[in-house]
Amino acid sequence: MLSRFLPMGKTHFKDLTEQQILALAISSEEDDGRIYQTYADGIRDEYPDTAKIFDEMAEEENEHRQWLIDLHQKKFGETIPLIRREHVKGFYSRKPDWLVKPFGVEAVRKTAAEMEAQAHRFYLAAAKQTEDASIRKLLGDLAIAEAGHIAVAKGAEKKHTPDDVKEDEADREQRRFILTYVQPGLAGLIDGSVSTLAPIFATAFATQDTWTTFLVGLAASVGAGISMGFTEVASDDGVISGRGSPIIRGFVTGIMTTIGGLGHALPYLIPDFWLATYVAIAVVFVELFVITWIQHKYMETPWLKAMMQIVLGGALVLAAGILIGSG
């Protein structure tokens, strides 16, 4: 249970040494260069001009990597510590290319722009954390370079007009809202709605006592909300990922987790067992539809995929709870 709150084998970004920061930057640039080259190869036949942009971005990432290696050799020698994104708590991750390319060139451009924005935030934070002048200068230069790549990745290489600037600002604000509120809230709603199904309905069919079922649902919902809230706070401080305040995300996740569980626990305040159960089952499918709609609208998940993930999964958990309680 403790590992849910304190992920094992990870370190805080603020605890990294200057050598480790350089090593992390080197491995990140290597990964990004390979990703951009994969994108370029995957869209070259249909979108040759965009593929050239990603070829150039891959070359620049390799050039950045070489700058970082050269500085590491000068400051710390030939041996580069093995440290990657997954070793740092709250550090951004990369989607596998097979989760991006099937959705088309616009999805590829958007993902690449997000990658560059994350890299920009990383270099800004890393520069602030270093005291060596030459390391700080290189990290600052790389932050500027990554910021310039964002527009290139979007295919918006033309000079921005005032309307373009407003649109970009609106996009950033929308993304900040999604990362800080929608994504944590959705995670909580999914966990609260799905994870409490089995215990609530197993209790209901095992006891056929509405009050006992309500108490079990209340305990499961509140307990899951507290657990998910603390997990969200501990998982990411938001400095590098740009996901905003961990306290806000923790509250959002915890509250939505509790709401997700209470939705189908509250009907058991109805004294009649079967009426309460029918209402609770109806509430479950409303919850699953709302989750599917949020995933489609804000996370851009295709309807069919979202339904397969949420509705089918929730229905299976619901059935498992009923079967276990009836056994």
Overview of the structural elements:
With 327 residues, the protein is an all-alpha fold. It has two domains: 2-158, Ferritin; 166-326, no CATH class. Helices cover 75% and strands 1% of the residues. The chain contains eleven helices and two strands, in the order H-E-H-H-E-H-H-H-H-H-H-H-H. Mean pLDDT is 80; it is low at 1-7 and 156-162.
Helix content: over 70%
Radius of gyration: 24 Å
Overall pLDDT level: 80
Indicate the proportion of strand residues: under 5%
Question: How many separate domains?
Answer: 2
The major beta sheet can be summarized as: 2 strands, parallel
Q: State the end-to-end CA separation.
A: 29 Å
- Give the strand order of the largest sheet, numbering strands 1, 2, ... along the chain: 1-2
Q: List SSEs in N-to-C order.
A: HEHHEHHHHHHHH
Shape: elongated
- Low-confidence runs (pLDDT<50, min 5 residues)? 1-7, 156-162
Summarize the structure.
The chain has 327 residues and is an all-alpha fold. The chain has helices at residues 2-5, 18-43, 48-76, 105-129, 133-154, 162-195, 197-207, 210-235, 246-262, 273-298, 303-326, and strands spanning 11-12, 88-89. It contains eleven helices and two strands.
